[in-house]
Write a structure and sequence with these properties.
Keywords: Membrane, Transmembrane, Transmembrane helix. The chain is mainly α. Helix content is 74%, strand content 0%. It has a single domain, classed as Glycerol uptake facilitator protein (Up-down Bundle). The mean pLDDT is 95.
């Protein structure tokens, strides 16, 4: 069993992501217009990547800073965390996400409502509103996110001190390319909190199923091909 303080760490870290991330969406629309522009995509990407990087550095040594059910579930499957603790992590993440979205509703009720408090809106016109394309994008992007996590934060031979920058950088890259395509979730908690507060549930299942599937595939490959080998050699 992990220290119960790790649950609080997951809640606070996820609060940080779901506060700064959706807030950047709200401010981008307010500053750059409702149509996505290069400036707004960069603004949103930097906010999400920066929030994740800083939360990883702040809480990585406490809880591992999963901040994402699509990270915790693969960690459970590969036995990096126990089932009970994994469930505790996910509940904590969802509580943090809900609290953050509720805070945004209190602070910016009208501006936030215009974008459903940062809830992803599903597959965009750029991919012909295709659910299968949107699902594939979210799954592939989460695959690479979990790949980076396992190879920088879990792998015994990873360079120390770079995992926050690496993970935050991947989140930045994910948002840079996927905000115009699916809204770039790769995190069920990131979508769930704003969806609950806004009441916008369209395509919600996709933002759970696709990231979890992509994360599990990445974790299985990275763990059994690379991580376990390094642990035996250590």
């Amino acid at each position: 069993m992990v220290n119960p303080r790790a649950y609080l760490a997951e809640a606070i870290a996820t609060y940080g992501l779901v506060f700064f991330g959706p807030l950047s969406v709200i401010l981008a629309i307010s500053s750059f217009g409702e149509t996505l522009t290069t400036q707004s995509v960069l603004f949103i990407s930097l906010a999400h990547g920066g929030a994740i990087a800083l939360m990883v550095y702040a809480f990585g040594h406490v809880s591992g800073a999963h901040i994402n059910p699509a990270v915790t579930i693969p960690m459970m499957i590969t036995k990096k965390i126990g089932i009970v603790d994994g469930v505790g992590y996910i509940i904590s993440q969802l509580i943090g996400a809900i609290a953050a979205a509720a805070t945004l509703k209190v602070i910016l009720p009208e501006l936030g409502a215009k974008v459903n408090f940062g809830t992803q809106g599903g597959p965009s016109d750029l991919i012909n509103n295709s659910i299968s394309s949107g699902f594939a994008i979210e799954a592939i992007l989460t695959f690479f996110l979990v790949l980076v996590i396992f190879m920088t934060a879990v792998h015994k031979k990873a360079s120390p001190g770079l995992h926050g920058l690496s993970i935050g950088g991947m989140v930045f890259l994910i948002h840079l390319v996927a905000v115009p395509l699916t809204g770039a979730s790769v995190n069920p908690a990131r979508t769930f909190g704003p969806a609950l507060i806004s009441g916008f549930w369209e395509f919600h299942w996709m933002y759970w199923a696709a990231p979890i599937l992509g994360g599990i595939i990445a974790a299985l490959i990275m763990n059994y091909v690379y991580v376990n080998k390094a642990e035996k050699e250590a």
